[in-house]
Design brief:
7 helices; four-stranded mixed sheet; alpha+beta; Ubiquitin-like (UB roll); 16-stranded antiparallel sheet; 4 domains; extended
């Protein structure tokens, strides 16, 4: 179909753009071509017209003359209706039939007239909400009404305003609120609309007794931990939503729903005229036991095997346990953790034991530890995509460390730690835009000699989308250790190198030399810049430069630079990368491969 604009100053650009949705169908000869003179209507109104006319022109194919004549009238009426939904109630529309070499044409000429605006708004409330104690709330509801005097009267805005008003009234106190009357009186000649709304709040609703449905193994006291109220409290949908979210966040339920029981037999009328309705908590319990196993492989740790057992509800108590083993060429570990349910603030406490062994770059460490951790995960305010994670921990450990070519040592320690992470990305597992920052602080003491040590680190990453598919990312980490002893836990110093830090070097091969081994350094600083170009949504390539060092101090650092290129494949678990990197100091090419985001 063709589109044109007649008359100087008409909205030609909008017509061309809006008409593209119809042009694609013009190849069928029996379908009329449409030429529209929009008469200066705004883009949103023109889009509505195009949708209405397009649905009718599709029906014109293979119709006889009488039916096509009826469809012409429908097209004109549909144009008028579309204009009315956008506030043009005095519009004039002409549809002229013509012919060209492809067949019939419809020339639609629009004179929209004056757009109707809101002239008067009358919002009334009846029911309990009309009493003096709710006067402030009524005033606020009227102030937040979006269709003020002088604004264009658009049907969709009118409908949304009424729906939002009922939602706001019924979210607190007035569960049974309904729209008693609404009317929009439009004077087309004057292009004004007078609005009338009458909301009946009904009686105030209060929360009654608690009803639990679906509990089998999980004790009722777990629900009582989150659903806290006294029967007779005013109904508040926000509270019900918070309780539901808290229950769903625990590991004990696959689903949880919190609502009022609005059945006639459940309602109780109080002496003051208020209604009381039971609060119903309906849950579906999670599986009592879960066994999982996983296999993995990367260039840093080789093949990796992990197994995990999880049990919900232990000895009838609302706790869950996790125990598992993990084995790769560098590390082997066994753990047993007990998790308590989240508290009112969303903090989860856990405690457990750990036995592990690692042998990396000539440092062989066997550790036995017991610890406590308190963790909170939360979202930013409103509709923000920002996520925050905060963690506190205390760990008592006994390390037996053997260093190739140097003295071995054992050390019992007590370490307290704090970590704060802020994540603002479009996709947690495959970011293309956003940023991440992670701050950690630790302090410890050797339990046999009372020697102290401290640690702090900051790491961050930023992603920028380039074009339709490409991504540029920069990441960096800085850390420092202060210690009055050389007998540190193996994980307290800094080592770097490998597929997730400075590529082109062996895993954790950059640090401080002691004997024939590489041990953790007191200072760390490194950064990376990488560009990823994707040929398709899944397959791409990358080029990168990494540089940094782990040394006795920042002043003693000598940069280890690595650079190279690789292949990137997007998977449901995150990007899988295979990279060939050249380590400038070692003068070696190394192949790295990994799955998931580096940070």
């Amino acid at each position: 179909m063709r589109f044109a604009a007649a008359g100087g100053g008409r909205f030609f650009g909008a017509v061309v753009v809006a008409g593209l949705c119809l042009v694609a169908q013009s190849v069928q000869a029996a379908r009329p071509e449409v030429i529209i003179d929009p008469g200066g209507v705004p883009p949103e109104a023109l889009q509505s017209i195009m949708g209405a006319v397009d649905s009718i022109t599709r029906l014109a194919e293979d119709q006889d003359g009488g039916e096509v004549s009826r469809l012409r009238r429908r097209a004109r009426d549909a144009t008028l209706s579309a204009l009315a939904t956008q506030g043009y109630f005095a519009a004039h529309v002409d549809l002229t039939v013509g012919q060209d070499h492809q067949g019939e044409t419809w020339d639609i000429s629009i004179d929209p007239g004056k757009r109707a605006v809101v002239d008067q708004v009358d919002i009334r409330f009846t029911g309990k909400i009309a009493e003096p104690e709710f006067s402030d709330r009524v005033r606020l509801l009227k102030e937040e009404w979006p269709l003020d005097k002088g604004m264009p009267f658009i049907n969709e805005t009118w409908s949304d305003a009424k729906s939002d008003l009922i939602t706001e009234v019924s979210r607190k106190d007035f569960y049974l609120a309904r729209m008693r009357h609404s009317q929009a009186t439009v004077m087309a000649d004057e292009a004004v609309a007078q609005l009338e709304v009458n909301v009946d709040s009904g009686p105030r609703v209060r929360m009654g007794e608690l009803k639990l449905i679906g509990l089998k193994r999980v004790p009722a006291k777990l629900v009582d931990r989150y659903v806290r109220y006294s029967p007779g409290e005013p109904y508040d949908q926000d509270k019900l939503d918070d309780w539901q979210q808290a229950l769903q966040a625990t590991a004990f339920f696959r689903g949880a729903f919190v609502m009022l029981d609005n059945s006639a037999e459940a309602r109780v009328t109080r002496p003051d005229g208020d209604l009381e309705m039971p609060v119903v908590v309906r849950v579906t319990e999670a599986a009592p036991r879960v066994y999982t196993a996983s296999l993995g492989v990367d260039s840093d740790n080789g093949a990796r095997v992990e197994g995990l057992y999880r049990q919900n509800v232990v000895f009838g108590q609302p706790v869950w346990i996790e125990t598992g083993v993990g084995v790769d060429k560098n590390r082997q570990r066994f753990f047993y953790d007990v998790h308590l349910p989240p508290d009112d603030s969303g903090y989860t406490n856990s405690f457990g034991v750990l036995a592990s062994h690692s042998d990396i770059q000539g440092v062989d460490t066997t550790r036995h530890a017991v610890g406590w951790r308190r963790k909170q995960s939360r979202l930013g305010a409103g509709d923000s995509r920002v996520e925050y994670e905060t963690q506190w921990s205390v760990t008592g450990a006994y390390d037996d460390t053997k260093i190739d070519g140097a003295d071995d040592y054992t050390v019992p320690t007590l370490v307290a730690g704090w970590q704060w992470l802020r994540r603002d990305v479009n996709d947690k597992y495959d970011p293309r835009e956003g940023n991440l920052i992670d701050v950690g602080v630790g302090a410890g003491v050797t339990l046999d000699q009372g020697q102290t040590f401290y640690k702090t680190s900051v790491r961050g990453q930023k992603w920028w989308p380039i074009g339709k598919r490409d991504v540029l990312t920069v990441r960096a980490e800085v850390g420092k250790v202060w210690a009055h002893t050389r007998r540190l836990p193996e994980d307290f110093g800094f080592r770097t190198g490998g597929s997730r830090s400075i590529r082109g070097y062996k895993y954790n091969s950059i640090g401080v030399s002691r004997g024939d081994a590489v041990i953790g350094a007191p200072a760390l600083a490194w950064a990376s810049i990488e560009y990823m170009h994707f040929f398709t949504e899944q397959l791409g390539m990358s080029v990168f430069v990494d540089a940094g060092d782990a040394a006795t101090s920042f002043g003693a650092m000598k940069l280890h630079i690595g650079y190279g290129a690789g292949v990137v494949l997007r998977t449901p678990a995150g990007p899988f990368s295979v990279e060939l990197a050249y380590g400038q100091r070692d003068r070696n090419l190394r192949l790295h491969f990994s799955l998931g985001v580096a940070f």
